[in-house]
Amino acid sequence: MKILLGIFIVVPALEIGAFLLASKAAGVIPTILLIIITGIAGSYLAKKQGLETIRRVQQELSYGRIPGESIIDGACILIGGCLLVSPGFITDILGLFLLLPPLRSLIKPIIKKSLRNAINKGRINIIR
């Protein structure tokens, strides 16, 4: 419940504040253009990274390997693309961290650790 509060109330409030500061510093038109450009760039990056990840998953499956890393990459790309397409500077920064491979490699160990903890605590069930 607290997470939903943060996502639906706190993040938009912070985004509005960032929009106001940016429009005051750079002007309204440049701020709007920046929002549009990040949305277009986010779509392009998500598509490019997503197609590459799908190719990697298919390749790993054809070799008989489980594509664990690629699946985590795919989830990061999906979430990062959604964050970049949604208007806002804070969500854009988070989206870039999930979309760009060098930045994503900094976040993946945290994701893996939280997944392991959730599995160990029984919050995620693995069916074998």
UniProtKB/TrEMBL annotation:
Q: Where are the transmembrane segments?
A: 28-46, 75-100
Q: Please give one Pfam family short name.
A: FxsA
Keywords, alphabetical: Membrane, Transmembrane, Transmembrane helix
Reply yes or no: does the keyword Repressor apply.
no
Q: Which InterPro entries match?
A: FxsA
At the top level, the lineage of the source is Bacteria
| Protein name (Swiss-Prot/TrEMBL) | Membrane protein FxsA
